[in-house]
Amino acid sequence: MAEVFERVLRRLGELHAVEFDVVRSPRAYHSYVSLRAESVERIRRHTQEDAEHYEHFCRTLAARGTEAVFRTAINAQSLYLVRQRLRAVKVDLIDGQDSSLLLVRDEAQGFYTGENSHTPGVVTRTMEFSREITGEIVAFALRRARRHWPDGGADQVLMAYKFHLLDGALDEWVTALSRRHGVDIRLCQPDTVNRNLIEQGLPARTLVIASNEWADIMHVVLLDKLGGERQENRFTENAHLHPAVSGLVEYQTVHGSADDLAGRDTVNPVATVRAAAAIAQRHGGCANAVRTVERALDTIWSEGAATADAGGQHSTTALVEALLDVLEPQAEPVPG
C-alpha cells in the first residue's frame, strides 16, 4: 500500500503543480504475521522496540511541522502503545441516507492500551482510565462535532463504554463534563447503544464517543448499516491529543494493514487511494483532489474494474493503473 499511496499522491501533485516530499520511516516495523513464528520474549522485545521507534518518528515529524502520516502495516500491540502515549483518537464521519454519525474512538485508554506481565500459563494485562484523558477526548469530540455541524452541533451525544466495571468513576466524570460543556452526554453500556440503533435508529446528527473495545468491532457494522460502505473502500484518521504531536494526523485504511496479503498484489487499493486524495487536498493544497479521485473511481467502476473482494478480476496494480489513466484535474465549481 505504500507504493500505491505514493503513486497516487504524486500523480495528484502533478495535476495540481504541487511537489510532495514523502519521507518513509527508516525502520521496517514488525506486523503480527511477521512476528507469529517468534517466541513470546522476542515478540515482547520487538513490540517495545517498534513502539519506541514509531513514537519517536511521529514526534520528530510533528516537530518539523509535518501534518500527515499514512500508516501501513505495524503490529497492533506496538501501535496501541504509541496511541496510548500520544493520546490518539480515531475519527470517522459516517453519512447515511437519513442520519449522520460522527464516531470518535478512544484509543488512548482502556483494554487496547496498557502493559502485559507474564507468569507461567498466565498473561496479566494492566490498563487504566483517566479523568484527564477522558476530558480531553470529550472536548475534542465536541469541537469536531461543531466543525462538522456548525449550525448547532450534534442532536445527540452518546458515550459507549463498559462503565459498570469502573466503580462509578466514569459516570461521575461524564456528569461533570456534561455540566462543564453545557451538553447532555448520555453514558451508555455498549449493548444499550446497539439495541437502540436496531430499534430506534439515529437522529439526524449523532456524536458517539466510544471505547475501542466496542468501536473496533462496531465500526464496520456502522459503515454497512448507516453508510452502505465496505471497509475495503474506507480510510479514517487518527488525531493526537498530546501537545507534542497535536498537529499530526495519521491516516490509515479501515481494513487494517492486510499484512497477510503482502506480495500477492490482491489487496483492494481504494481506501489507500482515497487517503492519498484526502491528504493531497487537506494538507497539500490540491483543491478538489478528493472529487478528482471520486470521479475517476466512478469511471473505472462503471467499466467493471474491481479487485476480487469486490467481485472483479483486477490485481492491485491493474486497478491503480486504470485509475491513474483516467485521473483528470477538476475545475473549481462555478458559483450558482
UniProtKB/TrEMBL annotation:
* Isopropylmalate dehydrogenase-like domain boundaries: 1-323
Q: Which Pfam families match?
A: Iso_dh
Name the InterPro entries on file: IsoPropMal-DH-like_dom
Its recorded name reads Isocitrate/isopropylmalate dehydrogenase
Q: Which organism is it from?
A: Amycolatopsis magusensis
